[in-house]
Amino acid sequence: VPMHTIPNIPFGKVTTRHVVRVFFPRMYGKYEGAAVPSSDLKSIYNRALRPIMLQLMPNHATHWPVNYEAAMALYRDDRGQIRPGSLDVPSHLLPQLAEEYLQRIANIHTSFHDAYFGHELRGWKAATAHDADNEDDRNLGLEDLTHGLDLDQINDHQWKVDVALEFGVPGHIITWHADSHATIIQWILPNLQNVDRIKNSKHFYHDKVTHLQDIAGFRWTPSSRQGQGVKYIQAYTTEKAVSHQLHKGLFSPHHPQELLSKPHLEKLLANLDRQSAILDTCTGGTFDDPQGGCARLEIRVPLSRAEDVLLDPLDIAAISLVKIPAKLWW
Question: Which of 98, 121, 144 is the last residue of a domain?
């Protein structure tokens, strides 16, 4: 079962990019999605979290809202968005806090039985950049990523980490040849049989670039037997950063009905002008350098294998990459 489908709540942050979540496997399938109902959150805060904090840190008792309703009233803005504050806990109290928390919530309801903590470290792409051919550099990159963890207390075979290669040439867009996907997968998983059949799998996605037939990235989620420890593989081009939005904005998809309303149509035309101006800037114009783009290959593996994958990439790069002048691309 993918972890993101298990009901969970954020518990705290260790660093800016390290989020600790509590997962409730007994709730799986009980509700639609992974959100935990507010009635359960109320019980957890009133009967577990706040009493524990008053016990462990009585000197900070006045910093904790008196109950769940008071906390929501304090942290919710006039648009209904949650703006939580920050309450720190000394590191030496964390083991006791974690143990007591799981025990107390288990006593509240059977839905909270077997709860466990999950750690999510996100947004580390550039922070741990390293030379794939340099063992010391790989070690330092992994140390930077895991500095907030007590590695003696975790099972590094169970933890997952994304490891990536990025290929770039100044003034160019580096992307993937559509015919190279099977070769890339075979390089990552040399013992995998019948690689050519993977393209027909429902878990394999062929990501064409700007409708070009010969240029495409891909995404693939192998089965446990196929992956041999590799959980996910993705190849894409970073030039999409110019227009890739997770929120609703200038580059969001549009719908046919927008053509039937004059106000919507006028807004659509105005947005097209803005998009065109941005893309024109990417060409570099007469004096500036054009916006480049790199080919990026990512795989998700156990933390125990983080330093032993995607090594010696030059051979695979030579047969799978396409180099296009950036000005021509845009």
Answer: 121
Give the tokens for residue 271.
Answer: 């947005």
The answer on 109 and 168 residing in a single domain is: no
Number of structural domains (the chain) is 2
Sheet hosting strand 232-237, strand order edge to edge: 160-167, 295-302, 232-237, 212-220, 204-209
CB-neighbour burial class of residue 49 (10 A; exposed 0-12, middle 13-18, buried 19+): buried
Q: Identify whether residues 116 and 161 lie together within a single domain.
A: no
Please calculate the CA angle 306-308-310 and round it to the nearest 5 degrees. Answer: 90
Give the range of the structural domain holding residue 159, as residue numbers without chain letter.
153-328
Strand ranges inside the chain, DSSP E:
8-15, 18-23, 116-121, 160-167, 172-176, 204-209, 212-220, 232-237, 295-302, 321-325
Q: How far apart are CA 149 and CA 159, in angstroms?
A: 11
Nearest Cα residue to 329 out of 254, 237, 252, 246: 237
Q: How far apart are CA 240 and CA 24, in angstroms?
A: 36
pLDDT digit string, tens, across residues 252-274:
888 888 888 899 999 999 999 99
pTM: 0.74
User: 102 and 158: one domain?
Assistant: no
